[in-house]
Write a structure and sequence with these properties.
Blueprint: H1 7-17, H2 21-25, E1 28-35, E2 41-42, H3 45-57, E3 64-74, E4 79-89, E5 102-113, E6 116-126, E7 133-137, E8 140-144
Parallel strand pairs: 1-6
Antiparallel strand pairs: 1-2, 3-4, 4-5, 5-6, 7-8
């Protein structure tokens, strides 16, 4: 649980960087939803923890995320939407090589509980420089820009 909605991205990053999937998942309510950057959708805290444990012990084992910009929209006294722009460094490729830095935007929907703020739902979206949408052709997805 977080003391304020603004704390959620910082606590998420702290747990991620410590490779603590349990602490990360503890930010979420029991029946929370989480959609990752490729559209995998987890429907509860246990699945969120299991999925993050896998990532944090394999291809994200050397990674670090840091919140860059945080914007909170207080929908009511007890509901907030939090957007965070992330920087992710240190992801490993399939051969164990260090990959380039990625940027993403993550959205959390949080609710004030008796013991603090907890996440009801989250969605993570990669930022693809120079693109405005995705296309699929012959089964392959590519980022595309129609403005050129």
């Amino acid at each position: 649980m977080a003391d304020t909605p603004e704390d959620i991205p910082h606590l998420f990053a702290k747990a991620w960087n410590a490779r603590d999937a349990h602490a990360l998942a503890s930010l979420f309510v029991e029946d929370a939803d989480f959609v990752n950057v490729v559209g995998l959708w987890w429907h509860n805290r246990d699945d969120i923890e299991r999925a993050h444990h896998y990532g944090l012990t394999t291809f994200f084992q050397s990674s670090e995320i840091s919140p860059r910009r945080i914007k909170v929209r207080q929908v009511s006294d007890d509901i907030a939407i939090i957007h965070t722009r992330w920087r992710l460094r240190g992801q490993l490729g399939k051969e164990g090589e260090q990959l380039d830095t990625r940027f993403a935007i993550m959205m959390f929907v949080a609710e004030r509980q008796r013991s603090g703020w907890a996440v009801l739902a989250a969605q993570n979206t990669d930022i693809v420089p120079g693109a405005e949408t995705n296309t699929i052709s012959n089964g392959t997805m590519r980022a595309a820009d129609y403005r050129k």
